[in-house]
Write a structure and sequence with these properties.
Elements (H helix, E strand, L loop, with lengths): L5 E6 L2 H11 L4 E6 L2 E7 L5 E6 H8 L15 E5 L3 H14 L2 E8 L5 E6 L5 E6 L4 E2 L5 E2 L4
Parallel strand pairs: 1-4, 5-8
Antiparallel strand pairs: 2-3, 3-4, 6-7, 7-8, 9-10
Helix pairs in contact: 1-3
Length: 148
């Protein structure tokens, strides 16, 4: 089991989330159901895919008889966009700001030598946008992780 194919984010407002990700951040998406009331939204990005699903239905999908409690706090999960330059990080942050993201930490030089910042989407999910001059990418723009 050495693969992660899909990350599903439970969201409170599917229409608002669709607008934020498609129109605001420019993700190519596939919408199942009506645009005014989507059943599920898939991101057509390279590598691991992301989907959006109504959170009230997601908790019931996990366990209908005893669904997990939904909280407002940090759940220990962040999503990341790895850029190929500091300028790319700044461009993605500008896009996120225009889309209405809540800026948590403006991009800055960080302890590990890279350049990184955080924003939150309309549902409170944290996105890190980062650049490291030590990073390499494959032909699909996926980050190459090595033990060097």
């Amino acid at each position: 089991m050495n693969r992660l194919n899909l990350i599903t984010l439970g969201v409170k407002d599917m229409v608002e989330s669709l607008k934020f990700y498609r129109e605001g951040l420019g993700f190519e998406v596939i919408v199942y159901g009506e645009e005014t009331n989507p059943d599920v939204i898939f991101f057509n990005n390279g590598g691991t895919k992301i989907s959006l699903f109504p959170i009230d239905r997601l908790v019931k999908d996990i366990n209908e008889a005893n669904p997990p409690a939904m909280g407002d706090g940090f759940n220990g999960i962040t999503l990341a966009y790895n850029g190929k330059s500091k300028e790319e990080v700044d461009q993605v942050f500008d896009l996120a700001k225009k889309a209405g993201a809540k800026i948590v930490k403006e991009p800055e030089t960080v302890f590990w030598g890279g350049y990184s910042g955080y924003f939150q989407d309309p549902n409170g999910y944290y996105w890190e946008v980062a650049y490291g001059d030590m990073w390499q990418f494959d032909e699909n723009d996926m980050l190459i992780i090595t033990n060097n």
